[in-house]
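Predict the structure of Acyl-CoA dehydrogenase.
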Amino acid sequence: MSEPLTDALAEVLEPVLGAGVVVANLRRLTGGASRTTWAFDAVTDIRSSLILRTGPPDDVHASMELEATVQQRAAAAGAPVPRILAADSSPAALGNPYLICDAIAGETLVRRIHRALDDAGRSRLLHQCAQALAAIHRADPDGIGLAAGDQLAEWRDRLDEMGDPTAPFEWAFRRLQAHRPPPSRQVLVHGDFRMGNLIVDDEGLAAVLDWELVHLGEVYEDLAWFCIRAWRFGAPEERGAGGLGSVETFLAAYEAAADLTLDRKAFRWWLTVATLRWGVICRYQAERHLSGQTRSVELAAIGRRVSETEWDVLDLLAGGGPR
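Done. Here is the predicted structure for Acyl-CoA dehydrogenase.
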């Protein structure tokens, strides 16, 4: 199966790396819910470790060419991202749209990252994450086809499509709609900035990955998503920002990096939206299993987290949660 892909990859890379490039050691990596990831070596007079991401086009995820453009603009603004070598939204060359970038050494498994960090390492990584988000939000979003949307309405629609709303989620959507804060400036939003989508090495944050949910939105969306319970991976509530440190420390670091003042009430509204979003995702994953679309113990287990998220949402609306 990989031999035709190996030959096609070499043809794709020749305009970038030169004639005679050889693709070696092609292997599929685990992980990646929406797209397939491969690692390989491109051999010319030197050997380069590269990553290939492929996947069919859909209406939810950004195209490969848009992902590439966004990452290049984020890099220009100072965000740590892999160097893009090639991207194409056409399936003609490899059978699916694709993106090829440098492989970045480091760790992505969050529990391993947490175990390896002491207090100073956690603090350093937390500040680097805040600085990376500030850089992403500084990136130029104009003229590349980024779409804006209403996150609250979009996730409400996704829950309604399943035809099985829960009372806590239904009440939360109504409460959030009734107490929506004034909108803030639209920026380039990563859409899934969290532990698990970051590469961490001995120096801290090495790269931000998984840009397929990029869109226009408010800075609070990325900040809040980083701080929901799910992305603490079991760390205590006092380390509510990615399991690294306090939410307030994270927000203050972002304010310093972005040179702006955040509205803490607006952030709390967005934190509740982010938690509710995770709850809808859990319910959707359970539906994939229950409907027979994708029978999976893992999906069923994720569905069990709906009740946990209902509690988190109600707690946030009642004034609880991380501070």
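The CA atoms of residues 281 and 303 lie 9 Å apart.
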